[in-house]
Each structure stands twice: as C-alpha cells, then as structure tokens.
Amino acid sequence: MNKEQFIKKLTTGLQKLPQEEREDIIRDFEEHFFIGGMEGKSEEAISYSLGLPKQIAKELLATYRLEKMEESTTAGNLIRATWAVIGLSFFNIAIVLGPFIALVGIWFAGWATGLSFIVSPLLVLINALLYPVTFDLFELFLSLAFTGVGLFIVIGMLFVTRGLIKGFQRYLKYNVKLVKGGMNYEKH
C-alpha cells in the first residue's frame, strides 16, 4: 500500500480521537514516509514496516483512552478505555471483558449489601406502620445492628472501589503492552 492509502486508512481509524491529536499522529507518520523516502525506501516498503494502519489506529486509540482514564477516573472513561482495549484483538473479549464483568458484579453486590443493611431500620418501621400487630422490638434492634454492619460495609466498599479501579487500570495497561508486542523484560 502506498503512502496515500496508508494515511487515508489511518485517518479513518483515528476518527474517535480529537482533531489536534489526530493531526499530530498523521504528521508523525508522514514524517516516517519522508525519512524513509530520503533513505531510498519505497512507499510500499515503508508502509509494510510500519504495520497495518487499522491496528495502529486501534493501539493509538487504546493508549489515548487509557491516558484519559488516568487523568480523570470516571465511569465513562473507564468503560471507554475498556472497550478500546477489547478492540485491540478478538482474544481480549474474554481476557478483558470477563474480568470487567466480574469486577462490576462484585462491586455492585458489595454496595447493594451495604446500602440494604443501612436502610433496614426504615423497612422495619414501615412494616410496623403497615402491620402494627407484627411489630417486635427485637427486629428493630436487630435492624439497627445491621445498620452498623452496613456502615462498615459501605466504608469498606469505598476502599474496595478505589482499589478495583486502580487494579483494573493497571490490568488494562498490561494488556495493551502485551497486545502491542509482548512484554519487554529489562535486566537490572
């Protein structure tokens, strides 16, 4: 593929990036073609040595999404980064999506348990208003104990949530490095 075809496919693959970022990347690749041409290489040889534009675009998009996630760790940025990493290879559907769904399930279960324990006295009081005959002080005191447990669970979930997000960010970065060409082990 010649320079024009390569740049066109790369530009198409980078449409999800901001205009300025996209222009910088295109300039860098045009410079690769210019330097290669100065060295006497053909456009096809340069294109072949750079790789497939579609795969390059996926890798650059994943890297961009990971950087945005690090700048501002929001649920939207985390999900966009996850989808960008999944898009790197078919293999990532199971390797990234599976752990993501499992972590979201654990996160949701922890928060639901903590919050339900906290509102349990309110539910006991509503039950006492609707069915006064069934009111039992033991149930009220037990629900108050559950509230204390629920508060501890919610406090713990704050730390667990932070840890899950940081851990998943590191996992996504590791996965991107792995897909881009394997891990480089440096000897110290």
TrEMBL record:
UniProtKB keywords: Membrane, Transmembrane, Transmembrane helix
TM region positions: 83-108, 115-134, 140-160
Organism annotation: Bacillus salitolerans
Pfam name, any one: HAAS
Protein name per the record: DUF1700 domain-containing protein
